[in-house]
Amino acid sequence: MPSKKRKVHLDGHLHPDFQGVASVLESILERQDGGAAFAVYHQGECVVDLWGGSLDRKGTPWREDTMAPSFSTTKGVASTLVHIMADRDLIDYDARVAEYWPEFGQHGKEDITVRQVLTHQSGLYHIRQMVDDASRMRDWEYMVDAIERAEPTHEPGTRTGYHGLTYGYLVGEILQRVTGEKFPDLVQKEIAQPLGLDGMFIGAPDSEIHRAAELLWSRSSQLLQSRTPATSTPKWLENLGDRSAEWLTRAISRLGFDLDIKSILEALVPRGISGFEFDSPETLRAAIPAANGLFTARSLARMYGALAVGGELDGVRLLSKATIDRASERQERADSLAVLPFDMRWRLGYHGTPTSRGVPRRGFGHFGFGGSGAWADPDRGLAVALVVNCGTGTPFGDLRIVRLGGAALAAAATRDGDPINLIPWDLEQSFSRMCSLFERGGAPSWR
User: Fold this and answer.
1) What is the domain-level CATH number for residue 189?
2) CB atoms within 10 A of CB 418
3) For 211, phi and psi rounded to 5 degrees?
4) How far apart are CA 441 and CA 2, in angstroms?
5) Within a domain: 334
6) Is the CB of residue 427 less than 8 Å from the CB of residue 354?
């Protein structure tokens, strides 16, 4: 992270009522490398569409059409596709996955339901045991076969373990089975084209890859690796064995963090991940629906903007209100947690949305490693989206989306003449502490 502030020029437009959002975005970009774009929809209107900073290490200015690889923010788009198909009665949340994908129903997976997949309770997060190298993630058929052969790491439904990298293949193959279409094509046909989105790809065509920002990594991650990294994962973490993971878990617990390092490695650190480049053309062309979406902020905000106002925007019906209500309802949590040490208030494929002003009661969306995030608040008709190309933080990003979301909520409340009435959530404190742990020297400057 830069040690001094830098001058930042923001391009785009915003409604005067949301000037406070621009001020927060400026303060963030002044203190970080790279660039970002942030967009807000309120009551069906695009009220913020801003971008600034640089799209690569050469300092090339971020452009209006720049897209950024957005890691787990991708899961929110994949989940929206599931709900579109549920709206058409092609998917039942409580049906067994094997009803749609017969080969899945073996090795203890026969009774896993779609709901368990969407709430990360299927016990299939352990990609480290499923593949011999992270590069396998570019091969859809290989990953589907690996999941078919896998056994759940625990009894499905008894534990919530964040499926950081496998989630996309699970929901993606269900979608492919019920529609007979390829996942990247579904993103375009069902979401991007109907809403007229300028940048939403999960498996990008060659013609669009030139728009991708280069992924940069914060100073702290570079120090961990003693070099400018191709990816965010240091080699020493990839090579950590079970005994070392147990030792590290105990050491971190003495600092007040309840982290199960072994389950984190199983879910997020397959062999070869330290050399896996998420922004390479080869990766961007592949479909990794849990981790490699290529988005503009305005496209994410427009999709969530439709969901925030009952599923229809500018005459385009994306989802029914009834399905949105079901998809965004908080789900019953399992008895214990793995991978992530706190309750994410899971919905069906989405999680709750902490902000610096509290938590919208019915807010839902998904944040991503690296700092991106997008969500909708049906109670206020509000949707926000952030894409960035610099940062690491927790598996759910860092505090930038928390700050910007809070600023957007405050502006919308003032515009509505309706005071903010949000629920407290101890995740915000845990999230801040995890950012400090993962990003020593980095996270404080994003607050």
Assistant:
1) 3.40.710.10
2) 11
3) -85, -5
4) 11
5) no
6) yes
Picking from 217-226, 256-265, 279-288, which range would have the lowest pLDDT averaged per residue? 217-226
Does residue 111 share a domain with residue 188?
Answer: yes
Reported as a single tens digit per residue, the pLDDT across 234-270 is 665 556 566 655 655 555 555 556 667 788 889 999 9
23 and 118 share one domain? no
Q: Verify that 59 and 182 share a domain, yes or no.
A: no
**In the numeric block, which tokens belong to residue 86?**
């549920």
| Percent helix, strand and coil across the chain, each to the nearest 5 | 40, 15, 45
Angle (deg, nearest 10), helices 73-87 and 321-328 = 130
Number of domains in the chain: 3
Q: Is the pLDDT of residue 7 over 70?
A: yes
Q: Are residues 164 and 90 in the same domain?
A: yes
Print the domain residue range for 428: 11-71+294-310+339-446
Token pair belonging to 105? 């129903």
Does residue 442 have a pLDDT over 50?
A: no
The percent of residues in the chain predicted with pLDDT above 90, rounded, is: 72
Q: Looking at the structure, do residues 358 and 400 belong to the same domain, yes or no?
A: yes
- What digits encode the pLDDT tens for the residues 313-370? 999 999 999 999 999 999 988 878 888 877 889 999 999 999 988 889 999 999 999 8
Predicted confidence at residue 219, as pLDDT, reads 45
7 against 135, higher pLDDT: 135
CA-derived radius of gyration, the chain: 20
In this prediction, residue 391 has a pLDDT band, given cuts at 50, 70 and 90, of confident
Q: Write the CB contacts of 226 (distance below 8 Å, at least 6 apart in sequence).
A: none
Residue 317 lies in a domain: no
Known catalytic residue at 135: no
Under 8 Å between Cβ of 121 and 157: yes
**58 lies in the same domain as 101:** no
Q: Indicate if 298 and 441 belong to the same structural domain.
A: yes
In sequence order, what are the beta bridge partners of 384? Answer: 40, 375
Strand 200-201 and strand 35-42: pairing? unpaired
Active-site pick, 54, 72, 430, 432? 72
274/172 Cα distance (integer angstroms): 25
